[in-house]
Amino acid sequence: MTQIELATSNGTRMAETSDDAALAIRGMTVSYGQKPAVFSVDMTVPVGSMTAIIGPNGAGKSTLLKAALGVIKPLAGTATVFGQPVADARARIAYVPQRASVDWDFPTRVIDVVLMGLYRELGLLGRLRGAHKAKAMECLERVGMQDFATRQIGQLSGGQQQRVFLARALAQDADLYLLDEPFAGVDAATEKAIIDVLQSLRADGKTVVAVHHDLSTVPDYFDRVFLINTTRIAEGTVEDAFTPQTLQEAYGGRLATGQLGQTALGA
Amino acid sequence: MLWHALTLQLGYNATLVTLGAMLLGIAAGVTGTFLFLRKRALVSDAISHATLPGVGIAFIIMVALGGDGRSLIGLMLGSAASAWLGLLCIGFLTRRTRLAEDAAIGAVLSVFFGIGIVFLTFIQTMSEGRQAGLEGFLLGSTAGMLYSDAVIIAVGGALVLAAVIAFRRPLSAVAFDPEFAASSGLNVPRLDLIMMGLVMAITVVGLKIVGLILIVALLIIPPVTARFWSERVTGVLWVAGIVGGVAGYVGATLSAVAPALPTGPVIVLVLFVMFALSLLFAPARGALAAVLKHLSFQRRVHIRQGLLALAQGQPIYEKLTLRLLQRSGLARADGVATTDGKARAAKALRDETRWQMARSREEFALAATFYDGLTEIETVLTGDQIGELDRLIGAPMGVPA
Amino acid sequence: MGEEFVAISLTPMLIGTLAAIACALPGNFLLLRRQALIGDAISHVVLPGIVVAFLITGVVAAVPMMLGAAGAAVVAVVMIEAIRRLGKIEPGAAMGVTFTAMFAGGVLLLEQSDTSTVHLDVEHALFGNLESLIWLDATGWASLLDLEALAYLPVELPRLFGVLLVVALFTWVFWRPLKLSTFDEGFAQSMGIRTGPLGFTLVIVAALAAVAAFDAVGSIIVIAMFICPPAAARLMTNALGAQVAWSVLFATLSAVLGYVFAGYGPLWFGADNAVSAAGMIATVSGLILCFAAVFGPHRARSGAPAEAL
């Protein structure tokens, strides 16, 4: 039994009944070519929590998120959302992809991007009504972008692009928000705006999971962490799982120990 | 007859054309490799289609000047000029507008070809144009070729090949790693220009043999074929040259034996056969090898995950995992481990624990970066180091290695 | 004037226009998806498809040939994808291998089989025969109301009209998912849009347009209309809907002006024979693109391109 405890003793392991989890990933392995980028990962995100997925570059953070959503096909493993297979729970999921993954020269306006978040509601040919536009405007307001509604998306700064993506996710009116590097390369004002929105979502009982790379803000922004480096290193509350020990395991020699000590709680 | 042709005993003209086609094929294979590695393979398609207006205009000018208009040199010069113009258009559209290169290539290709067709139909109405035979430039034809034309093709092929050989070193440096090449003092824009110049030269020399619609195959298929056989730039260059040379040689010969067949399509099909065989059967990168490798990789992943689940007493979520475990005699149908399975599972878990310990210790940080779930720890650490890990873990292992 | 125009020029002009629009509509999405050259590839493989259909059925009939061509387009798309994935070859090179090989196969089959009795040759495939699609039974504008004369309209006209209808319907019905998946494929997938099948359907619809247009106007127009009107339109506007509208306008202009210039242009210069209408239509579309590239209000890039994945 010693061995088993050793293998699982990092972070407090939640009761693994996936039925009451907002997101439950089991045995997920994803590979590009002949080397797994993510290996046999289990993840349990409790409802109403705010989780940071952290790990070094190339540790499989975004890959895990995309595989859970079915955007890339995993080699093995399953993901459930609120106890349902992901395919049946799409209406309850909002997703914010990496900003750099799309062509911002695409011929469309800011408000049209936000309206894309209403696609499930509108369907193929459903009429776009004033109420939809009002909702999109309201989402833009929540991220402070209401004045940019008719702007061409190519004219936005990086931070503004990120806010528009967040507004689109808000329009999806979901229960689980999955964000891929929402703070990457954005200005301080945008970072503040985004975290405010995320925290208000959480206050409304929504669940938030974000791929994150700035360790110094983890304790301020999130209440749970998921450390990954190909496999799961640790998972749990910030107090339990975000420790010098787990960070050393996740980042190895890639972070100076001093930095680890300063960043992590309890150092 | 075929044997005569293959051994170059089919008359002086045919021999010259065959040699020219072979030299051209080698040059095209090598130059095409540079294009392919620069991810600009289809630029050559635009270049070749853009030659057509030049052919037409050159013919009209030569007739207007009192010639018969069919001088191969004159037509080649015209085609080179309009191909160059096409290349400039692509550059203008991609640099000065928001259009991507693929759109620019497609636009230049179709518009220049359209303009060329307008000229061809105009030439057909000229009294001199009825037997101009310019349509032969579309698909290539070596039938009834003049001695002087055969000489031009042979000499042209040799010259292009010589130029390719002369520039091979800087061009392969740029193709392999443009940024490094630039930092080591090579003039990358100028070398790109030289590369395009070579592509143009190949197109122009090849027009008469392969035709402008299919000449692009001579530049694209050899490098793609060669890519299956080598991971190194030099290797790809060699194989591509050989593939191109063989195709030029065999294609020109076949078509000399059967004059009704247009040369271009024959050469392309010879190329395609070599490509298809490589795609399917190449040992390391071929499709068959890739599929087999993927299946065995998938199997390794599932078995490893299944063993870890067994060792930790967790349920096995996927049917495929269970089936693979069963088939390997590691688990029974109800998901309970066999004796063999228990031993393997214990070892898998022990290794996983060792990896975890390695990750948590700074002195093993470098080794820990090799972790991907499948790499055996014995392949990364020595026996002594593993012993040290076991000591740190401190638990009695008691599992046979 | 009316009599001659309706009999000789009206139907080819209409057919050219319908073909141009049918190709330009899906071309807009192919352009934005960086798949502009799929149109090039499709138009090259139509020839082998038609030849194989002819060899199997032994007749030159529209339906088997359209099926053959559509089949060839599917084979080409699957082959490009297979080469790309199995061989890890970049898409441009995979396309180059596929369409040259299939085109070469088509030409050789054509040369080897006895097609001397039928109107089937490489040049026809490239240039089409737009000029020959005349309406002999028309006696003037009044014929447009004359059911008997209408019955003898060139069959290409209603066929292209039907295909255009299908293409337009597809564009209209799937506008939202097409736009969404073209802009942000990952997000579209997360919403449950099956982007793979949708992209494949787009290519098949493009192939349908190419096949129908090819028969009437040849492959030059097909490639030119897939790319030039949408590319020019992209430089005129920053809204997708407006871009599609511009592309329809440009396609129409190219077809009408191209046909007029080809038929009457040489006369203005004192020559007495018309030049290829297909070639001239492509030329006009190129001129329009040229103007848009120099004067288009939205010709410069604005946003950063997507990172290569």
UniProtKB/TrEMBL annotation, chain A:
Entry EC number(s): 3.6.3.-
Pfam families: ABC_tran
GO biological process entries: zinc ion transport
InterPro entries: AAA+_ATPase (IPR003593), ABC_transporter-like_ATP-bd (IPR003439), ABC_transporter-like_CS (IPR017871), Metal_Ion_Import_ABC (IPR050153), P-loop_NTPase (IPR027417)
Keywords, comma-separated and alphabetical: ATP-binding, Hydrolase, Ion transport, Nucleotide-binding, Transport, Zinc, Zinc transport
Family matches, as Gene3D superfamilies: P-loop containing nucleotide triphosphate hydrolases
Cited SUPFAM superfamilies: P-loop containing nucleoside triphosphate hydrolases
Domain ABC transporter: 23-255
SMART domains, per database record: AAA (SM00382)
GO molecular function, one term: ATP binding
Transmembrane stretches, start-end: none
Family of the protein in this entry: Belongs to the ABC transporter superfamily.
PANTHER family: IRON TRANSPORT SYSTEM ATP-BINDING PROTEIN HI_0361-RELATED, METAL TRANSPORT SYSTEM ATP-BINDING PROTEIN TM_0124-RELATED
Name of the protein: High-affinity zinc uptake system ATP-binding protein ZnuC
Highest classification ranks of the organism: Bacteria, Pseudomonadati, Pseudomonadota, Alphaproteobacteria, Rhodobacterales
From TrEMBL, chain B:
Keyword RNA-binding set for record: no
Predominant cellular place of this UniProt entry's protein: membrane
Signal peptide span: none
Domain of life: Bacteria
Family: Belongs to the ABC-3 integral membrane protein family.
UniProt cross-references to PANTHER family, sorted A to Z: ABC-TRANSPORTER METAL-BINDING PROTEIN (PTHR30477), METAL TRANSPORT SYSTEM MEMBRANE PROTEIN CT_069-RELATED (PTHR30477:SF3)
Protein name listed in UniProt: Manganese transport system membrane protein MntB
Gene label: mntB_1
UniProtKB/TrEMBL annotation, chain C:
GO cellular component, one term: ATP-binding cassette (ABC) transporter complex
UniProt keyword terms in alphabetical order: Cell membrane, Membrane, Transmembrane, Transmembrane helix, Transport
Transmembrane segments: 6-25, 37-56, 92-110, 160-178, 198-228, 240-262, 274-295
One Gene Ontology term from the biological process aspect of the record: response to zinc ion
Location of the protein in the cell: Cell membrane
UniProt superkingdom: Bacteria
Membrane topology qualifier: Multi-pass membrane protein
Chief location of this protein within or outside the cell: membrane
Family: Belongs to the ABC-3 integral membrane protein family.
Entry protein name: Manganese transport system membrane protein MntB
Annotated organism of origin: Planktotalea frisia
